[in-house]
Amino acid sequence: MERLQKVIAHAGIASRRNAEQLILDGRVTVNGKTVRELGVKVSGNDKVEVNGVPLEKEVPVYLLLYKPRGVISAAQDDKNRKTVRDFFPEFKERIYPVGRLDYDTSGLILMTNDGEFANLLMHPKYEINKTYVAKVKGIPHKGILRTLEKGVKLEDGTTAPAKAKLLSLDKKKNTSIVELTIHEGRNRQVRRMFEAMGYPVLKLKRETYAFLDLRGLGTGDSRELSPHEVKQLRALAETGKVGSERY
């Protein structure tokens, strides 16, 4: 379910603000009934008309992008910086990222025009695992890794249990590569976790999202998700299972 003004905006009829005015002016109907309230939500099964003209439903789009560093995870940017949307000029649909990756973080990010799908994956109660590989300053010992796994105290609370693994180290440069799997979506969470432990992140990449990975893709490359992958993501978010297997 999505707010009516958002559905109208996504259909390209008007901006979100102008869509709200259309509703207030009584120019929008849902299933034949005029709606004048902004809090109304509709589903894909509802018939929405603006000035008597039915909205054309966009074909759902589901994409996987290997986001480079130095790219904004947004559909547009008021500072004219490059955004993830810029990698899909061939799509007329209004697509946007599912969640965010920091400007300086590369890796896997999903794109869609399906708001219900995006909200499902981003909802805090659904624990979707995301694996990051971080190059950090310093070489964390086993105690540090255990703390990362048990939970790190941040200003907005202690992080949920995670998985941490030391992949490699360079004693001469005093750096190491650490893999960290989390299921929360706090702002700059991975960087903040390492910084709180005294190991600032030098480079960060998201390697996986649920069962999806970057195999076969180079930086800036993308591919469409298969219908089966979309179905599996929905099932995973709702039940914690992929098919008959526990994720």
From TrEMBL:
EC number: 5.4.99.-
Keywords: Isomerase, RNA-binding
GO CC annotation terms, alphabetical: cytosol
EC primary class: isomerase
SUPFAM superfamilies referenced in this protein's UniProt entry, alphabetically: Alpha-L RNA-binding motif (SSF55174), Pseudouridine synthase (SSF55120)
Gene Ontology process terms (BP): enzyme-directed rRNA pseudouridine synthesis
InterPro entries on file: PsdUridine_s_RsuA/RluB/E/F_cat, PsdUridine_synth_cat_dom_sf, PsdUridine_synth_RsuA/RluA, PsdUridine_synth_RsuA/RluB/E/F, PsdUridine_synth_RsuA/RluB_CS, RsuA_PseudoU_synthase, S4_RNA-bd, S4_RNA-bd_sf
Domain RNA-binding S4 as annotated: residue spans: 2-59
Protein name, entry field: Pseudouridine synthase
Lineage start: Bacteria, Bacillati, Bacillota, Bacilli, Bacillales
